[in-house]
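Supplementary material to the annual report.
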Amino acid sequence: MLLKLSLDKTGGLFTEMARDRTLYLPVKRGGQADFAPWTPEAEVCLDYLNTARSIKDFFLPQTENIAAFKREGKKITITPTHEEPSPFVVFGARACDVRSLDVLDRVFLSDPVDTFYKAQRENGVIVSMACAEPEETCFCNAFGIDAAEPRGDVVTWIAGNFLYWEAKTPAGEALTGKLETLMSEADSSDLKEIEEQGKAARAAFKELPLGKLSLEGWSGDDLLGKFTSPLWEKMSKSCLGCGTCTYVCPTCQCYDIQDFDTGHGIARFRCWDSCMYSDFTLMAHGNPRKSQLERFRQRFMHKLVYYPANNDGMYSCVGCGRCVAKCPISMNIAKVIKALGGNANA
Amino acid sequence: MPAVKEIQEKMRARAGELLRDGGVSMALGWKRGEFCHDPEPAFFESEAELDNFVYDGFSSPLLSKYLIETIRKDKQKGEGKGSKFLVFLKPCDSYGLNLLLKEHRVERERVYAVGVGCPGMLDVDKIRAAGVKNMRSFDETETEVTIHASSGDKTLARRDILLEKCLVCKGPEFAVQDEVLAPGLPSFEGGDRFAGVTELESMSPEERFSFWRNELSRCIRCNACRNACPVCSCNKCVFDNPQSGVQAKSNADSFEENMFHIVRAFHVAGRCSDCGECSRVCPQKIPLHLLNRKFIKDINAFYGAFQAGADAEARAPLTNYEFGDVEPGAVVKRGGGA
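Predicted assembly:
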């Protein structure tokens, strides 16, 4: 059932949602939008399409403490320090970010299951929001994502002066049950408005600079041909080797487990890692990828060849465009797709 | 004073000449990207490749640091020994090259430095904030930028959409160059570049601490600031080195995390040319330049005005010793060190 709520009443909706759980939503921080816990004072910005960081943060946080080690004499005490999971809602996730969870699920929920990730997934309710228009750097349509009709436990749309709300899963229904009194039922004219808006949005995506990006030639059949392409050398030359693209990416999922010497013990933690870094997958003999060329190639081969080869052809890029917007030197996956792909992008 | 497009054509022609018969084996410049506002640093090895050459208000990434890898790789190859590399330098980047020369990271005889006038680089985010959606193309002069976008045409005052670093430009002079193309593009009369620092100094220590804790809490440890910095040129950064004991991709403790920026600011103190790249590249918009500018302001106050990178020879205040040097007691006099 499609429900609706006047936009000037969203404060009440947020208050209610945050009553028994943490509500994360796009908030203005440092001049841009990022997901942050809702407070009555928070500067909520629902007009931002892309947050600087993705919703990956809530399922695979940048840092999570795992255990503390303490030695007294010959005795070592190990105490689990991972935070107990608690229920939360992510409000305002865009279609690209929602799709990114499919990518992460295939990594962390397949055997051996990552229990930390699983607990976060079980505790999180995703309230997605349709895009009424694209950001300049968007290309989710290249991956078959419909930005006007995202997935999620609940899907919302903003059209005119209303927020529209539709539960899609049992978890979404349960959340909606607590909020129903705040909203009224939408009618067929509302539905029509949403549909019209969606149509316009889809057309606008196609008109973007990356709107006609084609994955032709990235079928995964030609793994060796891609790997040995001379183009990698040229493309990787300007790469600074920073981790911006990997850390703003909603699907980059590599992590490291490290020990921090607290001076009186050890804090073991898990943190994001980046294949762009010289100490990534460091082994006794060193990093298997010694040059930036190899590291650069790894990132894109993983997204466009290795991952789809192991996951029924699903690419591990969702076209959110964050790397496009944030790379210090404007190198990005779209350029790689075009340069090494088929003729469709010529 | 030539328009920016004319400068671009001059540069393209000059790069072509030098590649053809000027003893230069590669030209470091920028090439066109996917949008009208994302030129990428590029390495041109032949005249034909120069078709994509671009120099405009968005050619903000600095190029001097690429010389380290370029020369290193050339040496590895063993062939082409002694070949020169052309690099186009905006005035701010010429200070970067001088620092690389001074610290023996780049050999002067391997570089052919062509200085190019700069009209001040533009900030896409500021343009978007002015209501522009989906930029398609633009025309620019030294004072105005007209943007053609799906949201319509819009003319903006250049000053209003400059990158922060360009608002406090050091000026149109080149600290090092072999030749200058299109000199005299006026830099904008820089405002008080220490205004932000003065504001921080006027805070109480508690306020200042919480300001930085809040700003640095957004850091994602992507290392973009470090990797873009012309003076962060260590072969192996301590933060990347598992043997250093302080290696960290991220940390169990958020203050340890903040230490990365504090350590980096100390390491570039007296060497930072204030090119502002750290703040430009930060994906989380942390005003990192304020840390470096605090050091610059203090160095100026204690040792007299000093500009890192102004020359490749003289000793910098922090690597020199004179009898009149400030004593550690200065800290206490300023109310610190309790």
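Chain A has a mean pLDDT of 95.
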